[in-house]
Amino acid sequence: MRLLSLLLGSAKKSTASTWLGVKRQVSKPKVKRTVTFGALTTGFGIAGYSLASAAQKYHFYPVVYTDEQIKEINHVESSIQGLNLVQELRRDPAYREIRIPFNRSRHGFTNNLLAGYGRVTVPPLVFYNKETTQVLAVAHIGEDVGLTDGSIHPGLLATFMDEVLALCSFLGLPNNIGVTANLSISNPSKAYVNRYYVLRSQLEWTKGRKAKVHGSAYMLPEKEGSKDSTCVAIADGLFVEPRFAKYLKHVIPFQL
């Protein structure tokens, strides 16, 4: 997908509630940006995959890492697998877990250029619930995508949120495929590199080939359980299924 514009908008007050131990913003806070996308959304990396003994196994195409990088990647993978939230979701029979290796396409953006050591370190864990129409992703963001102060550019968060919200829209669209018509996003707090993130989304309504989704992103504390997670992005997206969507099913590597 290609980010086409970031336009400043109005500010609104926000309140928070708790979902699976992660704070959720229920209305938009300050600094609203409107982002419009026109590319086909194929979702944040998804379909079944098991933990590999070497970091290269995380990639669809071969990638060469140093021993030190492999050690760090496997540490990140182990840490994600051990998160309390991940364990809780796996115990809940209403949720299904899906995942795919990186680099399914040599021309991909989030699944190729932004994938791997120092970026999106390992393929995100993705959980979805068809009954409640919720999708949740857990990811680690490395230091190579940070700004000079170690923060993550809001545009990068917008790209990740677009992926997760689009995947959630698939739960309500007739052919499980859609394009982003509009995405509005606000950033109440800065996000930083070398941290774990939870991105969650909720399908709000569908009407024919249109679907509206709300989502939010949270930066987990450096030490799990030491304090509350920090909300770093809140988004609302409108997704539309193309009229020819039934002919595009072969480009989606999974079915929800």
Automatic annotation (TrEMBL):
Annotated protein name in UniProt:
Fungal protein
**Taxonomic source organism:** Schizosaccharomyces octosporus (strain yFS286) (Fission yeast)
